[in-house]
Fold this sequence. Notes:
512 residues; Major facilitator superfamily (MFS) profile domain-containing protein; symporter activity; transmembrane; globular; Growth Hormone, Chain: A; mainly alpha; symport
Amino acid sequence: MAGGSFVSSGSAHYEGKVTGFVLVTCFVAAMGGLLFGYDLGITGGVTSMETFLIKFFPSVYEEMTNATEDKNQYCKFDNQLLTLFTSSLYLAALIASFFASTTTRMLGRVPSMFLGGLFFLVGAVLNGFARNIEMLIIGRMLLGFGVGYCNQSVPVYLSEMAPPKIRGALSIGFQMMITVGILVANLINYGTSKHKNGWRISLGVGAVPALLLCVGSLCLSETPNSLIERGQHEKAKEMLHKIRGTDNIEPEYQDLVDASEAASKVTNPWKNIAQPIYRPQVTFCSLIPFFQQFTGINVIMFYAPVLFKILGFGDDASLMSAVITGGVNVVATFVSIFSVDKCGRRVLFLEGGIQMFICQVIVGSMIAAKFGVSGEGTFTKVQADLLLFFICAYVAAFAWSWGPLGWLVPSEICSLEVRAAGQAINVAVNMLFTFIIAQVFLSMLCHMKFGLFYFFAGFVVIMTIFIATLLPETKNVPIEEMNTVWRSHWFWSKFVPSDSDVAAHTDQKAVP
């Protein structure tokens, strides 16, 4: 044992089949993604509704309707108060992710999911019935707590319940539900945009997926990893029998027990994960969510209706364009589900990066050619349709690469003793930069203009090189065998000792 690391018994493949029970269980758990996705999709449409702005942000509405000539196309929605409505939720989610880490480890994955759904349910109700800005902000904070808890617990739950050979596909169920949530939100915004209190309906309907998750989590079973971690060994064996559909569970069970024993010796997972042996996990749990946000995807997801308005689409056309991109997002995620365990993580990451770069350069160039620096001009229908096509191609590339893999890879690479801490880092970094991008995007667009798309394209180049050089392939590797991946990598092998080195280190400590 070195630094609390787990040395596996060496069973690279466990017996078992894909049972109906595990499929249903993972589907119910993945509904946690609906909460995150619904909020991602709903805020852009709500903040473009005049009745909402008049009630809560009258100064913003007045500024927009009485815009002066210096408010060109790039700048007419540039207002920090308005963006704070969107971004404040993710600041609350950042704070909640650290509390959720402790809950997930000490109480289990399922209670953490239930708490996430409960927070989101209360927040959505408060937002739907909001009478003043205080109710609105408190509701947003509760929504943020719900997102923080669900984003912490659901990916870990899915990665632990899924058989290794389809872990990628089942774990991507979380991202699939995020895309479904975004699409549903866009459709609801489109349907309620003409209603006097349409914003209330849009915000209040968020209570539905929250209620589904709360009820669903009451029916879920805890993961074998979590049961062993909390000393419930017989229940863990029963659950392993149930989810694997075989009597020969002893090799996998023993590996889980060994991993739990190693984890139990770690009194402080935060201090432990800072050790050099966990350098790969810290690197990817930090940089993957960072790069995921700097693809620029949330520019589309948060502000799709606003962005399309800026680009000259009408009110209805901008909302419908947001629905189209949401539909592409859902369909493209299926590509990842069906290919991630066959083609692997690296291929999807690299192809998605190349496609996103090309599309961003084209979109930026089209906007530059039409609006220039002055921000004056409009697209013809043909040009607008072509622009929408390349935005959809960009969304599709993200949806089968950095979208789902940004949650899958960090959730599967951490051994049990640092899993809660690793996932907390992943969620915290994701929420921090989601908050930053949401808060500054409209100002960046105002000042950087079409160059903003080149800015994000530059980050896509950097992150694609990062994946190509430093990420080993993790497909079909049992989650408790993941250290073997680092030991065979040209760079990470410098930090992760081999089995023989660990054994030698243990023998030397045993010598009086």
